[in-house]
Amino acid sequence: MYSKREIYRTMPGETTASLNASVTTPQSSNFHSDIERYILITIYTVAFIGGTIGAIAMSFLLVKMNTLSVTTAAIVNLVVLHSLLLLTVPFRLYYYINQQWIFGQGFCKAVSAMMHIHMYLTFLFYIITLIIRWLIFFQWKDKLEFYRKLHAVAASATVWIVAIVIVLPLFIARYGKSGEYENKKCFTFHQELKKESVKALNYLLIAIVATITCVLLGLQVFIILKVVKKLPGSVWSHQEFWAQIKSLMFISVIIICFLPYHLFRLYYILHMKEKQLLMYNNICLSITAISCLDLLSFVISGSRFFKQKIIMLRDKLACC
What sections of the protein cross the membrane (predicted)? Predict the structure, then answer.
């Protein structure tokens, strides 16, 4: 073995800085890889634990709800959707902990597809829930209900048939065909973005999500301001105000969990040659799994204890 000084003597064209760079580059790469793994493991662990608790808690509450309500049907589908994603999370955790995929590329594509299906179906169910709430608020509809339970099942089945029977197999069959991927690696299908059709689809989804989010937020803020002006006294004690706050929570989940991924995705597509961006893209995608905590937040925010604590905190801040 030669020392660094001996190598330097035999290679007069090299500088000390270049030798140091050659030595530290692999360590720097491993450093970033470890940071990525730790962040991903933490995010998916939080999503799995919190999402599981929220799905169980919401399942008990759904028993007492009106089964013919369109809102209830949307929440039921949301519970099922989160549960399906949570079933795939342990496989992701195993991969990031052991740094080796042993379940085959077909299953890797299915797990990867489930993350995207979950994100866009959650977005869809949020929109449906918000529209129903707004129709009732503006008194265009007193309530929206199915005539029979069979109609609710049929509507839900239609959505799932499109997602699971059509979209998922198509995703598995077509995704991962543009590049060569190692069998022991997973969730690295970034080479697909070199295809112009895939780029166009991503641009379209980014524009749709960003536009709809802005419209939803603007309309919800308008409704909250309208409610605040209409209600006498302290708004914190009125049920109507809390109902709009709950609607705002749906939009907050979209802004916190879904919007960062789509906005960064735009930058990522335009700067694909920067390898470090793949790490940030994976982290932004993992944040979408945090949306599984929405059920837990809905259960907590709907409790009287939570509302009382919020009112007490507001009173203390007013006295300060």
Answer: 38-63, 75-97, 117-138, 150-172, 203-228, 248-268, 280-306
Euclidean distance between CA atoms 139 and 260, whole angstroms? 34
Tokens of 150: 């069979």
The answer to whether residue 311 sits within a structural domain is no
Residue 4 lies in a domain: no
Q: Residue 298 belongs to a domain with what CATH number?
A: 1.20.1070.10
Low-confidence ranges of the chain (pLDDT < 70): 1-32, 67-68, 140-149, 151, 168, 171-181, 233-234, 237, 302-320
Domain with 268 in it: 33-302
Report the number of distinct structural domains present in the chain: 1
**84, burial (CB in 10 Å: exposed 0-12, middle 13-18, buried 19+):** middle
Phi-psi category of residue 187: left, alpha or beta, with phi > 0 → left and psi -120 to 50 → alpha? left
Q: What gap in Å lies between CA 260 and CA 82, rounded to an integer?
A: 20
How far, in Å, CA of 17 to CA of 25, rounded? 12
The verdict on residue 107 lying in a domain is yes
Say if pTM beats, i.e. exceeds, 0.70.
yes
* Residues shown for the chain: 320
b (16+ CB within 10 A) / e for 264-301: bbeebbeeeeeeebebebbbbbbbbbbbbbbbbbbbee
